[in-house]
């Protein structure tokens, strides 16, 4: 079986899963440029968007997968299909 944790926010979260589940853990980061995020009506809020809970994984984590979500639906679909094929192969 596979389990998805959709919202790890701190390095300690990722470390805990890696310590407990070892090589079974696959980390995925979804990224979008600030420009894309602004087009989606995101507005930076000081004290919120710069808090550890929002940027605690910006450094110090080597993600297994980085998915780019900048509005190119075909590219996003291809990235997700590749990820899913890999995950299915690990089951």
UniProtKB/TrEMBL annotation:
<protein>
    <recommendedName>
        <fullName>Phosphomevalonate kinase</fullName>
        <ecNumber>2.7.4.2</ecNumber>
    </recommendedName>
</protein>
<comment type="pathway">
    <text>Isoprenoid biosynthesis; isopentenyl diphosphate biosynthesis via mevalonate pathway; isopentenyl diphosphate from (R)-mevalonate: step 2/3.</text>
</comment>
<dbReference type="GO" id="GO:0006695">
    <property type="term" value="P:cholesterol biosynthetic process"/>
</dbReference>
<keyword id="KW-0152">Cholesterol biosynthesis</keyword>
<keyword id="KW-1207">Sterol metabolism</keyword>
<dbReference type="GO" id="GO:0005829">
    <property type="term" value="C:cytosol"/>
</dbReference>
<dbReference type="GO" id="GO:0004631">
    <property type="term" value="F:phosphomevalonate kinase activity"/>
</dbReference>
<keyword id="KW-0444">Lipid biosynthesis</keyword>
<keyword id="KW-0443">Lipid metabolism</keyword>
<keyword id="KW-0756">Sterol biosynthesis</keyword>
<keyword id="KW-0752">Steroid biosynthesis</keyword>
<keyword id="KW-0808">Transferase</keyword>
<keyword id="KW-0418">Kinase</keyword>
<keyword id="KW-0753">Steroid metabolism</keyword>
<dbReference type="InterPro" id="IPR027417">
    <property type="entry name" value="P-loop_NTPase"/>
</dbReference>
<dbReference type="InterPro" id="IPR005919">
    <property type="entry name" value="Pmev_kin_anim"/>
</dbReference>
<keyword id="KW-0067">ATP-binding</keyword>
<dbReference type="GO" id="GO:0005524">
    <property type="term" value="F:ATP binding"/>
</dbReference>
<keyword id="KW-0153">Cholesterol metabolism</keyword>
<dbReference type="GO" id="GO:0019287">
    <property type="term" value="P:isopentenyl diphosphate biosynthetic process, mevalonate pathway"/>
</dbReference>
<keyword id="KW-0547">Nucleotide-binding</keyword>
<keyword id="KW-0963">Cytoplasm</keyword>
